[in-house]
Amino acid sequence: MDWLWLLRMRQWAQHPPSARRVLLVIGVIVVCLALYATEHWIGWPDWMTLDPVRAPARVIR
Question: What is the model's pTM?
Fold first, then answer.
């Protein structure tokens, strides 16, 4: 383990994050898990799917 990680862990132990920040991180994780679950079990809606871009036609001379 690098010394910087040990110093970072020491700083977190001495000055833990506020409850508001912990709730923010948990909220972001919950939103990400909800998006993943929706996409996995329900599927991705067609209106959110990008149409494939066709390559321009090449002119053969």
Answer: 0.58
